[in-house]
Amino acid sequence: MEVIRHTTELRHYSSVNELSKPHAALLAEAARVAGQAYAPYSNYQVGCAIELANGEIICGSNQENASFPAGTCAERSALFYAGSRYPGVAIVRVAVTTLFPAADPVAPCGICRQALLEYENRQDHPIELLMSHPGGRVYVSDSVANILPVFFRYKK
Predict the structure, then answer these.
(1) Whole-structure pTM value
(2) Which residues are catalytic?
């Protein structure tokens, strides 16, 4: 038997003020669009801002539905729009935040991690991930793979 270990490395910032201006601006966009979330059931508003290699910023917020599986997370709302609007344009970084008071920065759910990692693998280049919350703390990962080391991969 072989034991395989996966470790996750995140940079932790105690405040958005410690980030570069472009990083802070991307998180501000994510916070802005979180206010547009439709979350009447959970009251958990999440926003996502994606920076593309062409300089475009694509935003999305979570959109709930009374039939819970029919709702869409902020990350996938933005990700799939970016993929259809700008096919072939690489994703540089993704910022995710919530308006919900939380002890820790918000992280993408498992489905969103898988979707983000699919794009990272397609473009064969890491996607930087910024995660924050209203308290101001921020986690930054150099790659989506850091937060989903074991993932589903379809092979023909």
Answers:
(1) 0.94
(2) 75
